[in-house]
Amino acid sequence: MPFWRRSPLAREYEVTKRPIFLLDGWNIVQGTDAAAYVSGSVTDGVMYGTNGYLGVRHRSECETVGFESNVFVNGVYHNVPVDRQIDSEALPYEMQMGATVCTVNLDCLIDGDCGTLRSVPPRRLDLRNATYHSECRDVMSGDGGLMFDGDYRRVVSMKELDLWGADIVYSNFTFGSSPYDLQLGDSPNMFPPTNINSTNPDAPPSYLLEFVVTISVDLREWAILRGDSVDDILLQSRTSGVVESIVTQSTCAVDYENNSVRITPEHQLLCETGDHSLMEQNFSAAALSCPSDSESDPGFGGRMISSFGDQKRKTLSFKKRFILSLSPDTLPTKVTVTYLARHHSGGIAPARLFPTISEIMEDQRVILDEFWDRFFIDLQQQEELTPDRLRLSLLFNAFRLFCVSHNLHNGLPRGGCSATKTSLLYDLHQYLYHGIFYTLTSPPRALALLRGLYSLLPQARVNAHRISLKHGAIFPRSTIKGTECEQHNTVSQARLHVNAEIGYIINFFFAAVEDIDQKDRLWLLELMLETARVWPQLGEWVESEGVFRLDNIAGPDEYNSTASGNFYIHLSAKMHMRYVLDLYEQQLALLGEEAMTNLLKQIDMDKSELENFRATSDGIVIRRNDHLGIYLVHDYFNTLREWKGERPKHPLSMNYHPLAIFSHMLVDIPEVLLGMLLYQEEFEKKDLVRNLAHYRALCTYDSPESLAIVAAVDFQCNGSFAHGVPLLRSLMSLDVDNVIYTADEGLHFGVMSSSWIAIVSGIGRLKLGQRTLYLDPCFPAGLSIVKFTICWRGSTLSTTVDKDYVTYELIAGDSIRFVHGDGHRIHLHTGFHRYTAKRQVSVPRLIRTGEGEFDGAVFLCEALFDEITDINYMAWYKTLESLFENYRALHLREIQPLTTDEFFEKVIYQAEEREIAFSGIHNVLLDRGIDLELGTPDDAEIVETRYGLANAKVAEMAEILSRMTPRVNPGMHALLKDLANSGIALAVVTYSRSLKTLMHYNPEVVSLFLAYIDGEEAHDRHIKSRPHVDIFLRAAEKIHVNPARCVVFSMYLDRGFKASSLANFRMFFDVEGKFATERVSQQTQPYPTLSNDAAAAVGRDGVPLILRLSREKLPTTIDALEDMLYGRCDAVEERRGVSYEK
């Protein structure tokens, strides 16, 4: 978000200027600068491998050539006890926690020591075959006498879900260097050798290389049922009883110029303590298991199993060693170490042959080529400092969501198997975003996601029984096996919103997908019915009002979970019961009475219960607060206290007592906005606008998905005048730029899905929950292009939005019908009968009448304030006086202070050849015999450069502004409001870096501007400074307005500006400066004019380029401004000079 739009309650989501990763074709590569300052855990998370079943998280190489990976398996977990506040058999005594199955190390030892890296290896992730590459160059032995390269590849198969593999190719072996002549490079990423030994330089070089494959298992969590080597291991969780089988194949091939050999390995079994006594024990026979007493898993009993290992021995390591002797006469061309593994849950898997790494990669490419051929997503900002930065984030998110989609029938962990423990839990609230995403991009995968929920239905029925419901199913918020795995949900108010969200996904799936198998229709309807039938049992009728209430049930917002009358619960339950009735009637017509009767009999439901759904749904009344004109989060939300004082620490749940949070008027997930976004047919646009204005300022954004909700509603409400792009940018970049520093906790898959929804439902303005496809794309300020694809009823539609057109194209399927804008029906097809194919249509994005005088307005920030030039003068005066005092003391000479006339003449009217270089201040200093270099924006305030002085001035100005808190001129404020209300796009620009501070003290005008440019952006984008008009041209481009249809409000335009440049705009207004009229005596010069021929050529014959605006007679309405353009207002003064007197 623009940094000065952040509300006092909002969590910071600022995206850094320097990206961590870059997009190189279809490869995500780590930036060369990032390796020096970014934690390796960020790279590990982004570059990990997964197919939804397996997760392999690599640990980045830092100083030695060793490759370590942690392996996670979806659905493999340990049980941890729940600290129950209430001792009740109705509450679970344990919950699931994701497990790390093992750690795999592929090491290269040189004479017993690890090879040393000379520099950080380049790393990349190939989005075309899902392969990770790390290129270790110039690996050195400890004495520096041996050097070689090591190229690592890792791939997780999307064809065989239990398979992953890696190989390392060691090559370019060279001898000759010694500790005496070893020369290290000058790269800042170079690491010095760590194990240099004193050797005889005349001795013949010879090295013993060991290539070691190690699988390590944590004995505190796992019992070994079988395993005497790396090749075959059988594990069992000590707490959950889950059994995991690991079968591997490790080889080492040595290639010489004339032949190739395979090294016979040595096997070893070691404990962490170094006890070798375990090596002679035989664990090849599977241990006997006993019945489980775990409520989460009926399989192997993990609690009573005995272990051969002492609990003090924390880790057991299975090793396979390949030994190779190297000398100048036996140098290989390359050595290839290959590791392949299969992980099978639930027992021993049948034996299968392993493919090669190259075969896996080729299969991956075929699978991903098919995906990328039909899936497009792109969002480009104008003149990005780093090319394709947003595209990288979007492609990465889409790639990850596709990778995990191969195992959706078994559940989608919130971290997508990118980390262990809670990241391996399924957050079923995030399934709402996943369900919408997969329904609109790959319906078969959406069906698999729903099938995974259906597999939890038996346990969900048990959950309903636990809370004394006669029938139905209760789905938890976080789970693996169907029981609740977040402790706060077991004793606080029930969180049953997931039931309604499952109903929403099912209804949306039926609306968007036409071809559904009969068996699938039946079990989907069963899931819909079972989740809906809990609502009549959970609420009660208020007889005096004739309404049905669902109290003491909380929604997804953790910060509003203790009050009754929850808006989201009542709305979603009402719509859930309405949807289930509609769906039942549709399936009755399609499948017949007999199928429906059998289904109802199967779940013990009669038709009277169905009719009760109708009465209960109608009895739920969603009331708007008449006084505020909004919907309240809950009944007592407007009675809570406002958060005052200092900004809160985020996340609030980790920094404040729950009672302190619950007593304040704030939201984490804006449930009201989420409900209105999902069920748009129930609300008018004016309701969206009012509620957005109210809840945006109260949102803490502690849950990143909140960014998507607010951004999408903002786009829906305000279209091209929305401010949601910065929110969207932070959301999309959350993982690849580690925006909130949570890399160790895994990736945020809910963010990936919700950011896609924010683009399609927000910018594309697709109406969710409708049975007809509605699209009305907007084009917010700052964007250059938006592209996305959606699947609808068997066809795939591509949508492209630019500043001129919205283009729709049918890229797959035979036919698609949809509604564009306000009711324009469009039918794209491949041709039928006598009709020729119509695959593409372009619709003008904006239809302008051209009757208005202008479409946009750009304001120089200084023109908005009466006293800002005085404040600038005071800040520069104090900053220069600090410098002059030092020079006076050091050089014992008199230095004149900065005068007002001097400031006006040299600083205000400073002329720059290119971007700002503080030439005015430079001239002031030169007049006093002081010559300072320009420096860089990073110079500290005490550094004697012009940028150092400028940074000191910014700090001084911030201190002055905090005391004076300047306000926008009332006339300007009124004009801004009227322009914005009239549909005029507004931008604010300045060469100063104090824009953030000025807007902080004027929050009421912030929402009126669509775009801004401050001194930092002007420097980064090399925007030419005064007297060039580049900053105004850039602002017009940002708000998508032709400069010829744009007016500019600036100051001091009488010197240096070229008439030909000014003529690009509709009109410049030179706003009077009070500093000039009150503090200096200067004569303004005539404004520049075009020659007669030039004026005639551009159609400005007799029309001035600049009109002067008096502060006393500022126009406050668009009508008054247009009158000035027509020349009907006497307040206009142009061309002639005006005297400024003291």
UniProtKB/TrEMBL annotation:
Residues 437-756 form the Glycoside hydrolase family 65 central catalytic domain. It comes from the Eukaryota. One of its GO terms (molecular function) is hydrolase activity, hydrolyzing O-glycosyl compounds. InterPro entries: 6-hairpin_glycosidase_sf (IPR008928), 6hp_glycosidase-like_sf (IPR012341), Glyco_hydro_65_C (IPR005194), Glyco_hydro_65_M (IPR005195), HAD-like_sf (IPR036412), HAD_sf (IPR023214), PGP-like_dom2 (IPR023198). This is Glycosyl hydrolase. It comes from Trypanosoma cruzi marinkellei. GO terms for biological process: carbohydrate metabolic process. Residues 771-822 form the Glycoside hydrolase family 65 C-terminal domain.
